[in-house]
Amino acid sequence: MKALEQRIIEAGKVLGPTVLKVDSFLNHQIDPQLMYEMGKEFSYLFREEKITKILTIESSGIAPAVMAGLQMNVPVIFARKRKSLTLTDNLLTAHVYSFTKKETNEISVSGSFLNHDDSILIIDDFLANGEAALALAKIVEDAGASVAGIGIVIEKAFQNGGKKLREKGFKVESLARISSLENGQVEFLSNELE
Ligand code: G4P
Ligand code: NA
Ligand code: NA
């Protein structure tokens, strides 16, 4: 998605060979107009799938997921990272291992919002090692629902998450695919869908 690549070039900060800071439009301050365009792009990329709901994870997945849900006219559910006072019944949980933080965290979703006949689009802001997406997919499968696809805002294609998810047979679509962050420079993979 050209507008996103443009914004990454203009406003992204390369913090090292593996980390891109995008908190002026995605991870802290949010650009609603750009999110809206991303929602339209996700809706277009998954137009062949009969999506009934979108599942993401708090917090940075929520903005793009809601915009996709607006375009696709489906509800959006976000997995919680912390235990909720009111979210206690019928919990579906999964573990997410963070390679950078070297810790495992439990995420949870209420089973009451996922039905066995749901066809779920998983959305997240970053794809690195794929652990968050795999945990969301496990929750979908534990609910007896199916994963219709995985939509990612920024895929770091030099890490192994994309390969892992595609090898498992998931349809993964990323709005920007970064091939390298070496030498403080952002390089994109050419996107065959554009
Ligand atoms: P990891 O194993 O490489 O640590 O990746 P993991 O998927 O566990 O990511 C940990 C957090 O870091 C996630 O956010 C993820 O979105 C984010 N992340 C991964 N790579 C990058 C990157 O290059 N740039 C930025 N800005 N974030 C990245 P989170 O902690 O769940 O936070 P949030 O969703 O509340 O923002
Ligand atoms: Na994040
Ligand atoms: Na995230």
The strands making up the biggest β-sheet line up spatially as: 4-3-7-8-9-10
Distance between the termini: 7 Å
| Cα Rg | 16 Å
How many domain modules? Answer: 1
* Overall helicity: 25-40%
Q: How would you describe this structure to a colleague?
A:
With 194 residues, the protein is an alpha/beta fold. The chain has a single domain (32-179), classed as 3-Layer(aba) Sandwich (Rossmann fold). Helix content is 28%, strand content 31%. It is built from 5 helices and 10 strands; from the N terminus they run H-E-E-H-E-H-E-E-E-E-H-E-H-E-E. The protein has helices spanning 2-11, 32-45, 62-72, 131-142, 161-167; strands at residues 13-14, 20-21, 53-57, 76-79, 91-98, 103-110, 119-127, 146-156, 172-180, 187-188. The strands form 3 sheets. A 6-stranded mixed beta sheet has the order 4-3-7-8-9-10, sandwiched between helices. Strands 1-2 form a two-stranded antiparallel sheet. A two-stranded antiparallel sheet has the order 5-6. Helix 2 packs across helix 3 (62-72). It is globular, with a radius of gyration of 16 Å. The model has no long low-confidence stretch (mean pLDDT 96). Guanosine-5',3'-tetraphosphate binds at residues 19-22, 27, 59-60, 98-101, 125-126, 128-129, 131-132, 156. The site of one sodium ion has 4 residues, from strand 7.
